[in-house]
């Protein structure tokens, strides 16, 4: 945002979102499944109302082309959805081809770097007879996905907090640009991996995992998008606006998946969609350059920020020069810095999780017991491991069992996005309305029966026997119980959906199971709403941030363990991991049911 009448020479407005706000959801789980709310819940209650009113008044005075608005992001998110979905399945198929080419090349003695592709020809093509669909190759691909997912997750956890904190200094557009840069690097590396110039083989994917961990793509774009939304929307409109943004991204996924399948079928070259995605990144970067900045203070330039960091380091070195002189070697000093950096990073990972340990947060009236937060987090943790692990192995499994190629994967992705789109836009809200009407009808009957009792008592006794809770308290508790019902119901659907696939291994059941999973995964959305409702209001941001850390840890465990599981069971039962996912969802269902039962007793 350029300097204007919004700022004076002597006074600059303080940001409504402080720099210590807890970062939100990492990794990404699908954009429309987990909506990070940390960035707009941490400090809203502490903001000065006059300051916020003045900020929105200033926004209205700006010309439309220079006025930040979340509606600027909607077309951008549609194109992002197209860009990611048009190439995601093709990239996975290219990975299988690249790994296969190296493995077959080494078996044939073609161990010369860069020449292993000669074993099966150009890895970009997909022929009618493909030697890369053996259990050995696909089992190794599953393990490789687990390894690189774990590496990426670890680096993401260590760098996410630093990146997200920079958006409060350098602006939201800076974070969006960095996220797009990470996506571009990913596309370029995958294009290079499938070329004849790849001298590294499948090890190039470890390089990609490290780079995308240092620049966590999805984990940066999500906080940036929702921070931008917070800056330019009032609290009453944020939920609706977030729904519009999520729907825009889902729409892009639907279109991109269909386009990817059609392009692959027409060209026979899986790298074509990767090249198209690279063109999209350039167009999106140009669009971001014209996007109005939403930060409530004037963003610092990158040069100014680097200069301030250098100045701070210089002051620190002067203050500690006598101490440093006593160190035996520079090597020892370096080790100490690395140790303190690692300690600080690990603290950002594990310290937030202490919020859910019983006793760390005072029990409120909205908690059934002091174990309520821990039960919610445990249910969500095992849910995420089961769902993320199964999703990671889907393409290797369908390639082996159903002989799917990129076209079938793209069609399935389009179907999946359509199911999610319909679920979150229509079915889930309709079920909530239906639940409220049913509960209201039962509540009305109970009130009519209770109204007879005061007639048989004195007026004083009637007042003493009347309920102490206010209408708002009842509605708050009712919302908590509604979330619990959707958590329990969603988890039950997920258990059934995961059991159905290996028991009846047909393509129809695969699609039917995915439709059920779209309904079942509303349990994740309900869990976020639930944990933010039962915890103290002033801790909402920290709680959601801690929940996102738990999700990131669960994702690391999922991709690392499921890859090895698939490799060990691919010969005997390539769908065995579905039973594991069903068991993990059943474990999550047990924790959620215990929580629901405690609230029933309350």
Automatic annotation (TrEMBL):
GO cellular-component term (any): membrane
Family matches, as InterPro entries: MFS, MFS_trans_sf
Localization annotation: Membrane
Top-level lineage group: Eukaryota
GO molecular function: transmembrane transporter activity
Coarse class of the protein's main subcellular location: membrane
Lipid bilayer topology: Multi-pass membrane protein
Pfam families cross-referenced by the UniProt entry: MFS_1
Coiled coil stretches, renumbered: none
Parts of the chain that traverse the membrane: 69-87, 174-193, 205-230, 242-264, 270-291, 374-395, 484-505, 543-563, 575-599
Keywords annotated in UniProt: Membrane, Transmembrane, Transmembrane helix
Biased composition annotated in UniProt, kind: Polar residues: 16-28, 464-474
UniProt keyword Membrane, yes or no: yes
Segments for region (Disordered): 1-28, 454-474
Protein name: MFS general substrate transporter
Organism: Linnemannia elongata AG-77
Phylogenetic lineage: Eukaryota, Fungi, Fungi incertae sedis, Mucoromycota, Mortierellomycotina
């Amino acid at each position: 945002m350029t300097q204007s009448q919004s700022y004076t020479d002597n006074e600059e407005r303080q940001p409504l979102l402080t720099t210590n706000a807890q970062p939100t959801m990492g990794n990404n789980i699908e954009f429309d499944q987990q909506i990070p709310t940390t960035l707009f819940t941490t400090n809203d209650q502490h903001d000065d109302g006059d300051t916020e009113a003045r900020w929105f008044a200033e926004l209205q005075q700006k010309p439309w082309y220079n006025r930040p608005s979340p509606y600027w992001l909607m077309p951008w998110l549609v194109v992002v959805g197209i860009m990611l979905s048009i190439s995601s399945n093709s990239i996975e198929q290219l990975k299988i081809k690249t790994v296969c080419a190296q493995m077959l090349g080494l078996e044939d003695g073609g161990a010369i770097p860069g020449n292993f592709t000669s074993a099966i020809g150009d890895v970009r093509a997909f022929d009618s007879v493909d030697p890369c669909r053996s259990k050995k190759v696909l089992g190794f691909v599953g393990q490789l996905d687990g390894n690189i997912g774990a590496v990426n997750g670890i680096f993401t956890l260590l760098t996410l907090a630093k990146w997200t904190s920079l958006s409060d200094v350098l602006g939201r557009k800076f974070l969006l640009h960095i996220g797009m840069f990470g996506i571009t690097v990913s596309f370029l590396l995958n294009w290079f991996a499938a070329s004849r110039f790849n001298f590294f083989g499948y090890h190039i994917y470890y390089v990609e995992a490290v780079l995308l961990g240092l620049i966590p793509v999805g984990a940066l774009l999500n906080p940036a998008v929702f921070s931008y939304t917070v800056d330019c929307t009032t609290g009453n409109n944020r939920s609706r606006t977030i729904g519009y943004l999520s729907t825009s991204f889902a729409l892009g996924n639907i279109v991109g998946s269909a386009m990817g399948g059609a392009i692959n079928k027409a060209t026979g070259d899986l790298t074509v969609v990767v090249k198209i995605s690279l063109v999209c990144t350039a167009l999106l970067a140009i669009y971001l350059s014209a996007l109005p900045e939403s930060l409530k203070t004037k963003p610092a330039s990158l040069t100014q920020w680097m200069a301030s960091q250098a100045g701070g380091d210089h002051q620190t070195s002067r203050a500690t020069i006598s101490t440093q002189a006593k160190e035996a070697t520079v090597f020892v000093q370096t080790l100490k810095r690395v140790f303190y950096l690692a300690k600080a990073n690990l603290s950002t990972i594990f310290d937030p999780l202490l919020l859910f340990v019983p006793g760390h947060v005072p029990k409120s009236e909205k908690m059934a017991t002091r174990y309520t937060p821990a039960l919610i987090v445990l249910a969500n943790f095992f849910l995420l491991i089961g769902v993320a692990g199964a999703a990671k192995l889907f393409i290797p499994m369908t390639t082996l069992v159903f002989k799917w190629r990129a076209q079938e994967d793209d069609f399935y992705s389009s179907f999946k996005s359509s199911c999610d789109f319909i679920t979150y836009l229509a079915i889930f809200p309709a079920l909530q309305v239906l639940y409220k009407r049913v509960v209201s009808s039962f509540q009305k009957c109970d009130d009519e029966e209770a109204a007879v009792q005061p007639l048989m008592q004195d007026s004083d006794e009637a007042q003493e026997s009347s309920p102490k809770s206010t209408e708002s308290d009842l509605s708050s508790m009712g919302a908590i119980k509604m979330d619990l019902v959707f958590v329990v119901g969603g988890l039950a659907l997920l258990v059934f959906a995961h059991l159905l696939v290996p028991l009846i291994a047909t393509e129809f059941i695969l699609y039917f199971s995915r439709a059920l999973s779209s309904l079942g995964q509303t349990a994740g959305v309900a869990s976020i709403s639930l944990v933010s409702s039962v915890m103290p209001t002033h801790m909402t941001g920290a709680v959601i941030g801690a929940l996102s850390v738990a999700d990131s840890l669960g994702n690391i465990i999922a991709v690392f363990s499921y890859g090895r599981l698939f490799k060990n069971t691919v010969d005997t039962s390539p769908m065995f991991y579905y039973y594991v996912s069903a068991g993990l969802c059943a474990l999550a269902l047990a924790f959620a049911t215990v929580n629901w039962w405690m609230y029933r007793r309350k």
